Amino acid sequence: MQKKVAAFHDISGFGRCALTIALPVLSACGLYCCPVPSAVLSGHTAYPNVTFRDLTDDIDDFIRSWNEIGVRLDGVYSGYLGSERQVRQVRALRETCGRPECMLIVDPVMGDNGKAYSIVSNESYITAVRSLCAGADIITPNQTECALLLGRAPTQYTDSRESALDDMKRLVDKGAKRVVVTGMSEGEQLGAGFYDGVTGESGFIFHRRVPAYFPGTGDLFTSVLTGALLGRECCTLASAVEKAANFVMECADYTMRQGTPNLEGVQFEKLLGRLIPEE
Ligand code: PXL
User: Fold this and answer.
1) Distance CA 101, CA 111 (A)
2) What DSSP line would sit under 4-29, residue for residue?
3) 154 lines ligand 1 (CB under 6 A)
4) CA-to-CA distance for 130 and 147, rounded, in angstroms?
5) Nearest-CA neighbor of 205 among 172, 237, 169, 171?
6) Which residues touch 105 (CB under 8 Å, ≥6 apart)?
7) S-S: 145 plus which of 136, 141, 206, 230, CB 3.0-4.6 Å?
8) Is 18 in the pocket of ligand 1 (CB under 6 A)?
9) What DSSP line would sit under 197-250, residue for residue?
């Protein structure tokens, strides 16, 4: 049976991120991706003066309608959330429309490169995201978000494996079952660490650093990770992290060679075929 995963993210008209990445990527991985649009923007927030329409008021009815239709989900994957109430709606979606084994994958989108996004303007938003992460099967913070989740300043992180593993264990102690930390640097390499609080397995995956910054790579990473874990070939956390990290690196490398503006995000379209599972 094909698995169904709800993608609870915004839709931004320009600049690849959120739903414009999650939908094609999860489909390529063979999943039926059902979007829950948290907000509609004209572009992602790295562009100036974008329009933003918050859809929080629609989501309770959206969930009620899915329940009536009989939607039963194998996964709920949340990313950029436009309001504190939406953080609670993610949990309500899983409780209402999830199968008992429904996997909750939370990307606690709150910032990058030591800076918090403007949505993280108050402590109660961070508190709500922490509580969502505490009930998640997998969380995928970058280093900045990891610091915010643990109550530190967004700049307070180091790239040492020891401190990253320590942070991941602390996030598991707070309730998340598995943690993947992205955006780690090691010499000339970039990579991710993972800690599985269920099996105790941990590790780090590093690859060549593409010397450019593109928005939306966190969304691409977690979409591929979700697709790998819930897709037909259903792999281990280590191999899912490796697949996601390599795919993001390949897309960034391809985009740099094409020379398109970094703010448009990475060109993943022509590489999507690599994600399609064999029949
Ligand atoms: O990539 C995360 C993201 C998602 N959605 C919106 C964003 C961002 C990051 O800036 O602005 C609207």
Assistant:
1) 30
2) EEEEEEEEEEESS-THHHHHHHHHHT
3) no
4) 11
5) 237
6) 75, 76, 77, 78, 136, 137, 138, 139, 140, 222, 225, 226, 229
7) 141
8) yes
9) TTT--EEEEEEEPPSS--TTHHHHHHHHHHHHHHSTT---HHHHHHHHHHHHHH
φ, ψ (nearest 5 deg) of residue 189: -110, 160
What tens digit of pLDDT does each residue of 149-180 get?
999 999 999 999 999 999 999 999 999 999 99
Longest dimension (CA), the chain: 53
Pairwise CA distance, residues 30 & 38, whole Å: 23
- Give the Cα-Cα-Cα angle 223, 228, 234 (nearest 5 degrees): 150
Do 220 and 228 contact (CB within 8 A), yes or no? no
* Residue 102 one-letter amino acid: C
Nearest CA to ligand 1 atom 6: 44
pLDDT in tens, 42-95: 999 999 999 999 999 999 999 999 999 999 999 999 999 888 999 999 999 999
Picking from 80, 79, 112, 107, the residue whose alpha carbon sits closest to that of residue 213 is 112
Please provide the DSSP assignment of 33-71 as one string: EEEEEEEEEEE-TTSTT--EEE-HHHHHHHHHHHHHHT-
pTM above 0.70, yes or no: yes
Beta carbon of 39 within 6 Å of any ligand 1 atom: no
Residues 6+ apart with CB under 8 A from 158: none
**CA–CA distance, 219 with 73 (Å, rounded to integer):** 20
For ligand 1, atom 8, name the residue with the nearest CA: 44
